[in-house]
Design goal:
175 residues, alpha+beta, transmembrane, transmembrane helix, 7 strands, seven-stranded antiparallel beta sheet, 4 helices, single chain, FixH family protein
């Protein structure tokens, strides 16, 4: 049986490649002290705090945080909104939005033959003001907005009224 260790225990401890001794980094006098541990702890928490500050700043700069103005009041109307949504789904109407080359919004509406269409375009991150859109029926049977929508991504909330004053609402993205 052959081993790399010498039979003399004193000689084995002095050997630089011995598995019994920890490796040396700076010499014989280098030791891990409380200052080293304090530096590691301070560095760790400094990185955590810096990342948290960066993420909080990015979050507050990209989202205004307002979904509804008053959540209590919104909760009082929630069941009514669900009933209205169910009635609108029962109509079977559909809408498809697209941006035309001239920047206006084209709407393909399946359902009512004669309708009045209005919409509000909201920038998802609130960086631009809301845009009110009015639609007119084009010769092709589609609806086209009178206003040009600025470039970018927009969330468009449609409201369609037919001759019987039935209201149908939908929401879609325009890019």
């Amino acid at each position: 049986m052959s081993t790399n260790l010498s039979r003399d225990p004193q000689r084995t401890l002095r050997h630089p490649q011995s598995p019994l001794r920890p490796p040396r980094f700076r010499g014989d006098d280098a030791k891990f002290t409380g200052r080293h541990m304090a530096a590691i702890m301070i560095g760790f928490f400094a990185v955590v705090i810096a990342v948290n500050l960066f993420m909080a700043r990015e979050a507050s700069a990209t989202f205004g945080g307002v979904v509804v103005e008053n959540s209590y009041v919104a909760s009082q109307h929630f069941n009514r909104w669900l009933d209205e949504a169910a009635a609108e789904r029962a109509l079977g109407w559909r809408a498809a939005l697209a941006r035309r080359a001239d920047g206006r919004v084209a709407l393909t509406l399946t359902g009512p033959q004669a309708a009045q269409v209005s919409a509000v375009a909201r920038h998802p991150l609130g960086r631009q003001r809301d845009q009110a859109l009015r639609f007119a029926r084009a010769r092709t049977g589609h609806f086209v907005s009178d206003e040009v929508l600025p470039a970018g991504r927009w969330r468009v909330r449609l409201e369609v009224r037919d001759r019987t004053a039935t209201v149908w609402r939908s929401e879609g993205d325009v890019r």
